[in-house]
Write a structure and sequence with these properties.
383 residues; 4% strand; binds glycine
């Protein structure tokens, strides 16, 4: 089993070499995806109007800073600290344009502000992270005991919406309680996790994407397919957010039901993953078209590695083995380590019904690098 270590060390070397070029070429940007030439865009480009789905408030904007912190931890090169701080300085401006800031402040500020605070002890990054945690806590609906996802959408009332992805955002609340000693943040995070455990996780271990509550009475109403294929199906990245997210909730709280839920979702994933370890966008999508999501693959792999360290159901070895097989498959089939293009992981998809599939996404790279760092004992926990 430990033969995976030399493979992972070799992948780590290739990542570091490529990222040396990528980070220099993209200094000052906050990338999301690549253009036809394989070069990153820039979500911090101030000539683009800032909104929730574009510009500085785009939910994936923390992953670039997170990649910089991971590279710093692997290389000790100060240049990566400068890049990571630059990313946080930009994200800090989103508080000034507060309107439209959303539930994804966890994804934005855990790999940037909290990472900086943990790695360097910097006071300013701590303040920024606590500010973000207060915004996230303020989205808690006491009636349904859930954290509201998104803001008002044109023609859609989202006041009662919660999503499985938020299991990652709530790690910001756990951190805030650990940092301040004030239990309020953790209580909100656990109330949300308990609600998700009750209404989102099906008996077979799969998770829905979006759940809707009556925002005034808290009554559970229905689910939506969201980024998946249908209301009965299982969006794979959502399964990753669920299994990895419940594992993180267990690590922060010690509550056994979270660990059991993480394992329940993991076992469902293991039943669905095919022998070739290629991960579709939805485990229940029809035969055609075959949409892949390498990003979902990275999140599931990272969650399985983490879960393999704490599972008490005798499945630790199979969790780790599956994670390694998923990562090796990505490494062989879709990853690009050339220094002339920016992204590593290819063949990602944002959603089953997106018009664009087969794209690169910065958080696929983030979660791939994070998984390799876990396998090579590099760096600190980011969540
Ligand atoms: N959190 C949104 C996504 O996974 O696409």
């Amino acid at each position: 089993m430990t033969e995976y270590r030399s493979w992972a060390e070799n992948v780590k070397t290739r990542i570091i070499k490529k990222m040396e070029y990528v980070s220099r070429r993209n200094e000052g940007k906050i990338p999301y995806t690549t253009n036809a030439e394989g070069i990153y865009d820039d979500k911090s480009d101030e000539s683009v109007e800032f909104s929730a789905d574009n510009g500085l408030k785009w939910w994936t904007n923390g992953f670039w800073g997170g990649i910089m912190w991971m590279l710093y931890q692997a290389t000790n090169e100060e240049r990566y600290i400068t890049n990571a701080k630059d990313c946080l300085n930009k994200l800090n401006k989103t508080f000034d344009i507060f309107e439209g800031l959303h539930h994804d402040v966890g994804f934005m500020f855990m790999p940037t502000a909290v990472a900086e605070c943990r790695i360097t002890g910097d006071e300013r990054s701590r303040t920024i992270a606590l500010h973000a945690a207060n915004i996230l806590a303020g989205r808690f609906n006491i009636n349904g005991r859930y954290i509201r996802a998104w803001n008002d959408l044109p023609d859609v009332d989202t006041r009662g919406w919660a999503i499985i992805d938020c299991m990652f955002n709530i790690t910001l609340l756990y951190w805030a309680s650990e940092e301040t000693g004030d239990p309020r943040y953790r209580e909100i995070a656990m109330a949300h996790a308990d609600t998700v455990m009750k209404y989102f996780i099906r008996d077979n271990g799969s998770s829905i994407h979006i759940g809707e509550f009556n925002p005034d009475t808290g009554e559970y109403i229905r689910n939506y397919a969201g980024q998946g294929y249908s209301i009965q199906s299982a969006w794979t990245r959502g399964q990753g957010w669920a299994l990895y997210g419940f594992c993180l909730s267990y690590l922060h709280t010690g509550k056994k039901e979270y660990l059991e839920t993480a394992c329940h979702v993991a076992d469902y994933c293991l039943e669905q993953i095919s022998d070739n370890y290629v991960i579709p966008i939805d485990f229940m999508q029809p035969d055609m078209p075959q949409v892949e999501d390498s990003c979902g693959a990275c999140v599931i792999a990272g969650g399985l590695i983490e879960l393999s360290k704490v599972a008490e159901n005798g499945h630790s070895d199979i969790y780790l083995e599956t994670a390694i097989n998923i990562l090796k498959t990505l490494d062989k089939r879709v990853n690009d380590y050339s220094t002339s293009t920016d992204a590593i992981v290819n063949r990602c998809s944002a959603a089953y019904y997106s018009k664009d599939h087969d794209m690169t996404m910065n958080y696929a790279d983030y979660y791939f690098i994070e998984a390799i760092w876990k396998l090579t004992d590099t760096g600190t926990n980011m969540w």
